[in-house]
């Protein structure tokens, strides 16, 4: 351990939405909304998810329980300040609402969080955005109930207390972060991911895996100096509860990930992936993530002309899970020395068949497992394949360093040279 | 498996309070109450817990955050309709309150649930008590926030949606059961259990163990016929999430239980027991418990003159955890055939050092582990030692059969003859 606090933290916190899981769960949301006291709700989605038919099916189901439901495809993939303001204005025009439902990936769920916040608590978007970009205002009262219905197995947005957005004029990714943004209920119905293309399952699955691995390896809560109650943050470092969710998520991934990519119609594998995503979300939503997620911001944000299979081809993009995965092998080689036993335990969970053969000081085991997996499921061979070269590394380092909220849970103190090394060694992952 | 539903259930639910865990957590409750919007709160405890000083210390801490706090020692150990009505009347006289804090064991927490319900939603106690005893009315709105601060490592009341009470005039144990009774926040501070005598640690620990073992072996949620949304109950049978909590709880107990009984000042063991209790509560609060808990009601309720060490000596009693434990070995010998692999997996979790030696069809392994543990920690040798004989068994069977809410999650259909056999074989557990 590299930390020795004078007055170590002894308290950790754990928060989560209530959960309804399983095939058919998305048809019952009206019942749950009625129990939450809602009479007229807004279903927030994006245009791509709308075209699957699920948001309208969910809205019809809600109406079947005597609750009025309006559908807005107002979420932008990767929300911006402009897209959130537009979504809020459209919701205000069609309101009032006393409940919200998000059907989609992280973008739809985060958009619904912002809409709920601004319709429940008033004011303007920038009032609530984290300082220094915004005024960092906390909501003065509980928000209307928000039911999150993820259609992408990965983001964990159904469990977290944050809404991530790009502020276009400043070219910065920031967020709104408050415990009241956590959805009241997560409804995880594996049927909604049935149409997910293999490329999306692969990227989103790497996001799940990194949620689990990053919270599992996150700086332990006991390694911080003791906090005053008002200083506690939702991401409190690894702890016995987040560890449990992370471990279980890795075991499910070991069983189901390759199968789910190879055969999207395998219901058992899809169910396991949905459960793995939920578990990882419940873990990282409390422990936090670190280096791979910090690197993912500039990797996704500075894309020039990469167009991955399975995603809309109209704009270049590095999907979030892919962006996270690309530096994961090298990040975990670098974090190894913070706690070798923990890294090898993760390797055993992810590759239970080969656990016996490893030395206790082998920093290459976990990166090797990740690289083998990425090759098998069709991820790009490093940052080079998504369009970055050595001359981009300094820029990427700058972008990662802006994610101090995430880097604060790195198990080793991380500076520009460390990130430079990790990113450079991630240009090509295998020969 | 003995169940073959025509249209199997595919959905399970999971609910839990938010959690703050660790030494020092009980000093921060005022901060948490402020975040929940409270200005004037009632701290509910019982006379025994009040004498430890903790309720007043918690109230002082709350006042330090600018919140008014009143302390009532209005909880009766094993709440009755009369004790709850008295607690509600005392609270109404001193109100209004916009938040509640329970400091104590299951009795204090359940009393606070009833007080919160009646002060938040109006009406009389019997309006809400489960049918057929009461009118089974559901609260019409969310209750004021309730923070549960358990001082006994075991009950799990901080996680559950039920308030258990004896209706004196009818000599029946029943409850109030609604999802809105679940506390908003559980604050688990192991310091509050430091003064627990060894006998209490032993009995309460067996309650934890049986919570974990009964939810781990409970009838699987997929073995039920598919429910309509309005038919869902908080106790939905074993499922992947309750399994995880139960397993982890058993591993913690394997590590810490004997040590915590032997040396109450061992902080690590006490912390592990507090965590095991929390985990087991989060598991059984969703999966449910079955035969040992059903039997515990009449075993505790019909006591004549047993006075256990470590408990108040003014009234005869069989402590809840002891009452649960006394038929556990025989209950799990009887449930073995429902899922031998699961029973042996539990045995391996509880006794990891000896896991290799067992045959896959040995129904005696798990009962043997439980009996060895009970001898080591000083539990009575069966129902005979707490004052019951063969002539009492028929009465005890009648009492157990009244707990159909619990028996519904038994992994085998259970009738009077089954209970008669389990109770008879539990009269003496070892030679």
From TrEMBL, chains A, B:
<dbReference type="Pfam" id="PF25137">
    <property type="entry name" value="ADH_Fe_C"/>
</dbReference>
<feature type="domain" description="Fe-containing alcohol dehydrogenase-like C-terminal">
    <location>
        <begin position="238"/>
        <end position="426"/>
    </location>
</feature>
<dbReference type="InterPro" id="IPR001670">
    <property type="entry name" value="ADH_Fe/GldA"/>
</dbReference>
<dbReference type="InterPro" id="IPR042157">
    <property type="entry name" value="HOT"/>
</dbReference>
<dbReference type="InterPro" id="IPR039697">
    <property type="entry name" value="Alcohol_dehydrogenase_Fe"/>
</dbReference>
<protein>
    <recommendedName>
        <fullName>hydroxyacid-oxoacid transhydrogenase</fullName>
        <ecNumber>1.1.99.24</ecNumber>
    </recommendedName>
</protein>
<dbReference type="InterPro" id="IPR056798">
    <property type="entry name" value="ADH_Fe_C"/>
</dbReference>
<feature type="domain" description="Alcohol dehydrogenase iron-type/glycerol dehydrogenase GldA">
    <location>
        <begin position="18"/>
        <end position="190"/>
    </location>
</feature>
<comment type="similarity">
    <text>Belongs to the iron-containing alcohol dehydrogenase family. Hydroxyacid-oxoacid transhydrogenase subfamily.</text>
</comment>
<keyword id="KW-0560">Oxidoreductase</keyword>
<dbReference type="Pfam" id="PF00465">
    <property type="entry name" value="Fe-ADH"/>
</dbReference>
<keyword id="KW-0809">Transit peptide</keyword>
């Amino acid at each position: 351990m590299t930390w020795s606090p004078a007055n170590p933290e002894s308290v950790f916190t754990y928060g989560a939405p209530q959960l309804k899981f399983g095939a058919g769960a998305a048809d019952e949301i009206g019942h749950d909304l009625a129990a939450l006291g809602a009479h007229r709700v807004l279903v927030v989605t994006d245009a791509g998810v709308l075209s699957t038919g699920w948001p309208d099916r969910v809205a019809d189901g809600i109406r079947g329980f005597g609750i009025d439901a309006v559908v807005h495809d107002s979420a932008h993939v990767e929300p911006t300040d402009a897209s959130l303001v537009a979504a809020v204005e459209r919701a205000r025009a069609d309101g009032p609402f006393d409940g919200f439902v998000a059907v989609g990936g992280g973008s739809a769920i985060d958009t619904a969080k912002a809409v709920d916040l601004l319709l429940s608590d008033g004011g303007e978007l920038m009032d609530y955005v984290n300082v220094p970009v915004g005024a960092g205002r906390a909501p003065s009262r509980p928000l209307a109930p928000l039911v999150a219905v993820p259609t992408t197995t990965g983001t964990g947005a159904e469990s977290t207390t944050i809404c991530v957005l790009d502020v276009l004029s400043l070219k910065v990714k920031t967020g709104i972060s408050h415990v009241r943004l956590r959805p009241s209920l997560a409804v995880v119905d594996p049927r909604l991911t049935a149409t997910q293309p293999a490329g999306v399952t692969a990227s989103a699955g790497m996001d799940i895996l990194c949620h689990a691995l990053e919270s599992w390896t996150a700086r332990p809560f006991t390694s911080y100096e003791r906090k005053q109650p008002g200083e506690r943050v939702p991401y409190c470092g690894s702890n016995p509860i987040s560890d449990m969710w992370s471990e279980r998520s890795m075991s499910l991934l070991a069983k189901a990930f390759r199968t789910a990519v190879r055969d999207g119609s395998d219901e058992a594998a899809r169910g396991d992936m949905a459960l793995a995503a939920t578990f990882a979300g419940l873990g990282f939503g409390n422990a936090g993530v670190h280096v791979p997620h910090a690197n993912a911001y500039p990797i996704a944000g500075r894309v020039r002309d990469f167009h991955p299979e399975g995603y809309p081809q109209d704009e270049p993009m590095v999907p979030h899970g892919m962006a996270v995965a690309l530096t994961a092998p090298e990040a975990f080689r670098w974090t190894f020395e913070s706690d070798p036993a923990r890294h090898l335990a993760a390797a055993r969970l992810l590759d239970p068949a080969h656990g016996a053969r490893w030395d206790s000081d082998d920093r290459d085991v976990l990166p090797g497992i990740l690289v083998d997996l990425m090759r098998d499921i069709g991820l790009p061979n490093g940052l080079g394949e998504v369009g970055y070269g050595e001359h981009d590394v300094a820029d990427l380092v700058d972008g990662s360093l802006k994610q101090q909220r995430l880097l604060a849970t790195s198990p080793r103190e991380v500076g520009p040279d460390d990130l430079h090394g990790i990113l450079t060694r991630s240009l090509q992952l295998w020969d």
